[in-house]
Amino acid sequence: MYDYHVHSNFSSDCNYPMEDMIKEAIKKSIKIISFTDHTDFDSGSNKYDFVFNTEDYFNDLNKYKNKYNGQIEIISGLELGMQPHLVKNINKKMNLEHFDFIIMSIHTVSGRNMYDGELFREKDLLSAYSLYYSEMSSVLDNFNDFDVVGHFNLIDRYAKYILNDTIKLDIHEELVKKVLQQIIAKDKGIEINTSGIRYGINSYHPTKEMLGLYKKLGGEIVTIGSDAHSPDDIGFNYRDVIELLIELDFRYITTFKDRKKTFVKIK
């Protein structure tokens, strides 16, 4: 078992220290855990910087690497919230070169948060979806310093939560297809983020249909992440994801270290 999307109290939306997460991961026989704590600049309309102290992060990470050596492999990571206007200056804001693994996520769209409903005000649902995937596409046009795209269809979570509605893939499939093709062309991947089940959308991020489309287009690079913000959620639904990947004819999951990928056979 590998969990490549775990948070600690270095993310301001998580209250649990790294060691609590590590101990639970060991109990659950996780082989590799990656702490992908949040960094989002200019988040939402108030332009809040959602960041952590990297020096303290690496001090803790290295301490626990030594303490739990032989029990679990601990990988440095980052969940980097991106927006089109950040691309040119992101490396001035954040030193990315020391991390083993980077998830690129879209949390803020056109200067508006999704989680509090900002994005959906004064927009119909299809327009909001189109803007979300168009901005993801714009980032992908100009940004390469990441390994996988996080919770690809995150907008579904918040559309469901705020509006109790989502849009089916066939309505915006061409735009989704374009974005997936961009990811594949860059030799990047997507994560299967299991948190969608916990947040009530009855699917992972991405959906089974999107994951099947990614495979059909030639996508092979997939990581599995729980997006855990508490110890209980580490490794959430891992074995079910493996079954889904086998059903869709994926042969490997992907792990990362030093920004280099390794393919691990699943059957």
Instruction: Supply Rg.
Output: 17 Å
Q: H/E series, N to C?
A: EHEEHEHEEEHEHHEHHEHEE
Structure annotation, total helices: 9
Q: Classify the oligomer.
A: single chain
Shape label: globular
Helix fraction?
A: 25-40%
Sequence stretches where pLDDT stays below 50 over 5 or more residues: none
Mean pLDDT: 94
The total beta strand count reads 12
What proportion of the residues form beta strands (DSSP E)?
A: 15-25%
Largest sheet: 8 strands, mixed
The SS-based structural class is: alpha/beta
User: In whole angstroms, how far apart are the ends?
Assistant: 14 Å
Tell me the layout of helices and strands.
Elements: E1 2-6, H1 18-27, E2 32-43, E3 48-50, H2 54-67, E4 73-81, H3 90-93, E5 101-105, E6 108-109, E7 112-113, H4 125-142, E8 148-149, H5 154-163, H6 173-185, E9 189-193, H7 195-198, H8 208-216, E10 222-225, H9 238-247, E11 252-257, E12 260-265
Parallel strand pairs: 1-2, 2-4, 4-5, 5-8, 8-9, 9-10
Antiparallel strand pairs: 2-3, 6-7, 11-12
Helix pairs in contact: 4-6
